[in-house]
Design goal:
With 289 residues, the chain is an alpha+beta fold. The protein has ten helices and 14 strands.
């Protein structure tokens, strides 16, 4: 089972998180045939969002979106507070040798981080991050430094069968070990891609921080799960209105809706449409996503 682990290095006043996703990554990759550069960026984003969601106390959904131009026009990864993950990307086939984050999303690309709380449990929060750096890790470290005033080191790794991430942050407040953060940061930077992808959490943390006083907490499960449903398709059509839905049905013979996240395929025919508008669903008019 995929899990995320939290740990504390008390003497250095540092918190950390480690995640390794195997089943989630395999399921996400099976939804579309992503070119290698897109797969790399999507995998890094999946690991990063898992770590970001664990730093926020919320009940709802964290939406991580990178919008750009060429060759990747959009990438979206979502993480819910109960451990559900999903993601997708759209791209064009004009890749160049520049696989930096700016090379993949263009000079005008940006990251939008949105926290959508459950109804009645807080306010919507959104933050915009410029693509200042060569990698996604660079951009997110700058985000924490500028927006949260937290010194952060983030290591991300993507393989064929798994993705992984390691995050350490200097917590606010004074500490007796003045060199603690610099030492932990330097040790974190020594981790290799192979170690992140293949080692279990206990082995990896021991290799990196065996001379530190570290507390490791129980892991929390994560999984791929899409929130699309027939109900959401029905409500989307209700939102369009009977006239427009019937016009679409007459033109196309049937209404087909595909989910970009999981490739689920929904078909609505004349009988379905009559049922939808006769029942008058009131569960909202969310999109299929």
């Amino acid at each position: 089972m995929d899990k995320i682990y939290r740990f504390l290095i008390d003497d250095a006043n540092v918190r950390g998180e480690w995640v390794q996703l195997e089943e989630t990554w395999k399921t996400l990759k099976a939804c579309a045939e992503y070119p290698a550069p897109v797969q790399q960026m999507l995998g890094e984003s999946l690991a990063a969002v898992s770590l970001l969601a664990a730093t926020i106390k919320y009940k709802g959904t964290l939406v991580f979106q990178i919008s750009g131009g060429h060759p990747i026009s959009m990438l979206v990864v979502q993480a819910s507070s109960d451990g559900k993950l999903r993601g997708m990307a759209r791209w064009k086939d004009d890749f160049t040798k520049d696989e930096s984050i700016n090379g993949l999303f263009g000079e005008n690309g940006r990251i939008v981080i949105t926290v959508e709380p459950e109804e009645g449990k807080g306010e919507r929060y959104q933050s915009i991050v410029n693509l200042d750096g060569e990698t996604l890790s660079d951009c997110l470290e700058a985000y924490f430094e500028q927006s949260e005033q937290l010194k952060t080191r983030l290591e991300l790794a993507v393989g064929e069968t798994s993705v992984s991430g390691l995050l350490v942050q200097r917590l606010p407040g004074s500490v007796e070990d003045k060199d603690g953060w610099n030492r932990v940061k330097m040790l974190t930077e020594t981790v290799t891609t192979e170690e992140l992808l293949t080692l279990d959490v206990e082995t990896m943390l021991h290799r990196l921080f065996h001379e530190e006083t570290l507390r490791l907490f129980d892991g929390e499960p994560l999984r791929f799960e899409c929130s699309c449903s027939q109900l959401k398709v029905d409500n989307m059509l209700l939102g369009l209105g009977r006239e427009e839905a019937e016009d679409t049905l007459k033109t196309q013979g049937k209404i087909e809706v595909d989910c970009d996240f999981c490739n689920a395929h929904y078909v609505v025919d004349e009988i379905d449409l009559e049922r939808i508008f006769s029942e008058g669903l009131i569960a909202g008019n969310d999109s299929v996503h």
